[in-house]
Design a protein that fits this description.
50% helix, alpha+beta
């Protein structure tokens, strides 16, 4: 677990020093708000321009990370995803460019500051993690893993969830 903490510290430091707003999403977010599960990657939603993306790429030196700069720039253009591989740990970091849609803007605005592995980060809110996991589950044909993550958040957060927000987004 200490190698993962080190990776999280290094990556968030690179994001912060380059001024790239971010939030942890995916299974790390569902674990933070729900029940733990294993994963093979770290999903980080980023929100930035070409200049700040180039600064981030410079902050992820090739001697420490494998990242294809052209793929990253194309992901920014398409508002998609690119990844980096941490050579020290072998962990894959999926950098997801925030989509330009109402839900994604609100999801990013609602991110919460919290410690994750004792590292101060921003994490997608539990409600937005539920919504995103439902979307991923639907796109992947009904993923059981996504549904288990949702159930874990519901079981853990229970009455602390913003039910009005979930209902407003069409989930009840």
């Amino acid at each position: 677990m200490s190698e993962l903490k080190g990776l999280l510290q290094r990556v968030t430091a690179a994001l912060e020093v380059t001024g790239v707003p971010f939030m942890i999403a995916g299974s790390f977010a569902s674990t933070a708000h729900g029940l733990p599960r294993t994963t093979q990657d770290l999903d980080i939603v980023i929100d930035r321009s070409t200049d700040s993306l180039d600064a981030l790429l410079r902050a992820l030196p090739l001697e420490h990370y494998y990242v294809d700069a052209d793929a990253a720039r194309e992901a920014l253009r398409r508002r998609a995803m690119f990844n980096a591989i941490d050579q020290a740990t072998g962990w894959k970091i999926d950098f997801i460019i925030r989509k330009n849609r109402a839900f994604s803007r609100e999801e990013f605005a609602r991110r919460v500051a919290m410690p994750l592995l004792d590292v101060h980060v921003y994490v997608a809110s539990p409600e937005d993690t539920i919504i995103a996991k439902l979307e991923w589950s639907t796109q992947s044909g009904g993923s059981r893993r996504q549904r288990r993550d949702i159930a874990g958040i519901l079981a853990t957060m229970g009455a602390n969830l913003d039910r009005a927000y979930l209902e407003r987004t069409g989930i009840s």
